[in-house]
Amino acid sequence: MKLKYTSELLSSIFRRSIFASKNVASSDVCINFSSLQYLEDLYNAWLKDPNSVHPSWALYFQNSAAGGAAYQRIPTTVYIGKNEMPLNEYLQKHRPALIQSKSFTTETSYAQQPTDMSYAIDAIQDHAAVKSIIRSFQDLGYLAADLDPLGITTKDRISKIEKWKVDSKFYKRGLDKRLDEQFLVPHNTFIGPEKMVLKDIIHRCEEIYTGHIGTEYRYINDYDKIRWIRQKLETPGSGVLSKEKKIKLWERLVRTTVFEAFLARKWSSEKRFGIEGCEVLIPALKEVIDQCTSFGVENYIIGMSHRGRLNTLVNVCRKPLHQLFAHFIGLEPAEVGAGDVKYHLGTSVKVMNRANNKLIKVSMVANASHLEHVNPVCQGKCRAQQFFAGDRTGSLVMPILIHGDSSFCGQGIVFESIQLSDLPHFSTKGNVHFVINNQIGFTTDPRFYRSSPMCTDVARVMNAPIFHVNADDPEAVYHVCRIAAEWRKTFQKCVVIDLVCYRRMGHNEIDEPAFTQPLMYKMIRSKPPVLHDYTAKLIKEGVITKEREKQYVAEYDKILEDGLAASKKETHVKLTHWLDSPWVGFFKGKDKYEVRSTGVDEKTLKFIGEAFSSPPPAELKFVTHKGIDRILKQRMEMVQKRTIDWSLGEALAIGSLLKEGIHVQFTGQDVERGTFSHRHHVLHHQEVDKVTFNPLKNLFPDQATYSICNSSLSENAVLGFQLGYSTHNPKCLVMWEAQFGDFANTAQAMIDTFVTSGQTKWYRQAGLVMLLPHGFEGMGPEHSSARIERYLNLCDDDPETAPPLEDPKFAIKHLFDVNIILANPTTPANIFHLWRRQLYLNFRKPCIIFTPKFILRLPEARSSFDDMVEGTFFQPVYPDKDVPSGAKKLMFCSGKVYYELMEERAKRKLVKDIALVRLEQLCPFPYDLVKKELDKYPDAEIVWAQEEHKYQGPWAFVEYRLNHLLQKKKQVRYAGRPVSASTAAGNKYLHVKENEAFIKEAMLV
I need a surface site. Which of 193, 301, 329, 538 has the fewest CB within 10 A? Predict the structure, then answer.
């Protein structure tokens, strides 16, 4: 009777039989899935032919099948006919042939003497060694892959493979002498037939993992994903291209190469940051787009720095050639603005994807020379498009990010952006990352610009597979592009394609690279471009002919010549052609100077206020913190008295916009609660984890979506994300709040290059709101100053070019002309109006608001509903209504210092002597309202008072503008802290003394 062994039973049998041998300890044996596979194969072989297995196992299975004691000690002596031989000697001599021969006959007799199971153990150890060498290729193959087209970095690849063989006991087991022997293929480790000759296993591993593709994926903490990648890589024939695919790939390489040659021929002395050396990037991008379009994606947002940008604009985005060439021939811009160099500009086009005849939209986000800073901007823009398209799975909109090798591993913004990839509030459901791996960073080679083995190692943190591929093998590139596109569709996760290439020119076309890399560039100059080699390959295969090559090159060259001829008919460069986020219809038919009240009817204000101040509905059985109960009660009391504090002012602004159908998107490190525990937009159930309640999300049945979420501990990337979000649709309020205003320093490059100068360079408007807590309260140099002076230095406000003060629309015209809005509000009503004004303007400006800490709960800093009802507006200046025109001193100030000055003035009984005027808006400077105050107090001494140190804060900015208005009739006196290299005193005693001193000075009459 034949027995059917299960894996569990076989495992048990194997353990008992091994441990029964007196020479084998249990600690020496590892039973794993491979061992079970071996046993099953052994048992099945015995069923077919008892003579095909080792006699120890034949006896074992025979006794078991007969119902007797399964385990019996096997003999130490073997009888072959009449000849007697020790078993171990026989096994040593005949083991290589045992697997395939029938050396033992049924007549073989066994003496009942004790022995060990050395043969069984040897077989398993051989199997383990084979498995180990396969694992070595899978784990480390990318380090020995033939990736470098120049052959510089892969010279020691053979020695690496040899080391793996040593580590896997390949030589110790003598497997190097058994290459023609068949071994079981561990099906959980490698995809292949049940058995393979050892040399074929090794050859297949080398082909898959150390050829022109090197894959990193074994660190991914999801076995299903690992198995998926193995399936794509190890399935025979998976990388083979059809004839049609090869032709399409070749045609794309032709256009890429001929385009670069055309630019070099026509404008040889111009910088263009060409793609020579990585021409395969363009076909790779198009293949990813083709594949993803077939999966349903309709919208692509591309973020990249300058290398290859012009070629991408033309051959991927299909930017009209005459619009690009107009930049080369030096036409003046049609619109007002400084513009930017051609390889920094963006675009947005709708094109027909000819691979599947689907209409798609491709946008390239404008980018400054800060290389990787476009990454989070691109992600934010993509997230916004997904939101407004109702695309919750990323199946309609996706980003493609293109990096440089040295910047990808060297710039912190890359890591910050990567960490956003899987956060629920920031995820774009998978970014496809390309790395143009020039193997050089400007003039620095990899030995000196990174510590990691590969430039892409930072991407490991997001569990993304990384495909390194030799950029001189276009078909291998296409293979990984198809896998990358399928990965994103299947898992909605990021993927990285590292195109290992070279840079044929220097950093730019007029740079001499041989100064610093003489040997590398000696090799490069003797190396033909990839098109040359690939064309020769296809001609040899009979896919194309030499005649077809000449014809196609000539056809595309004529297209380029026609584009150049058309560009010469242009009279201006139109910046509107280079918008990466055109707001179709937003400006049409609108008066850009229209002024509308930002007030709201009192009934709505009261409703929102009461809803925001009420606990969650009883039916939710939501348990709030007792401290929250107290806060809600205090809020409700204020609403009943028609009075609001700062938190209510924020809530009323957001709630009223939501009622009007305006989407609000708000993030920062602690925005849900608020760094200073004043906001509490998200309440947490005190007894059930992950259960929250947001009253502003449930105000009206048909309100817009309110998205508020704490961000990662990042300023640079999160600010960039919010900026990108704000550029997609002008009809949403997008806000970012720094934990402390000081921390925005780490996002300075984003602020300088994108926020404050974006419209001037790229004609792109954005209504982003930045909230920067600011105020000197003895909290030290990193928790006091938002560096107001830095932002004022970024303003293009100029009294010499401001509209005439007598113009009745001066304020709105001036607001339209400047690049940013800077405000330092001191009342809840003004923050309410500021936020709402961002949506009520018929244009968009970034608004940087220096928000308070001290006055969040200050009783004097409260507003009435009367300040927010219909017909009310934001107040750029708060005049002193209580001081007559005969005051001795006119003191201007901004921010929370007003309340300290007001208190001190009252103590000294100087109310009639000192007029205190608050500037709530610093840029655009309210010249008209400030002049009105100057005219009101013609004989008064003019003083500017601030809590910041001299030459920090607004002093230098305001002094120049006050003097302009005074026309040298008076001098403006400064009252404030002295100069300091640090923003604030860290010692509490010094802080108090400094504060007392400058307030005392300010009160001198």
Answer: 193
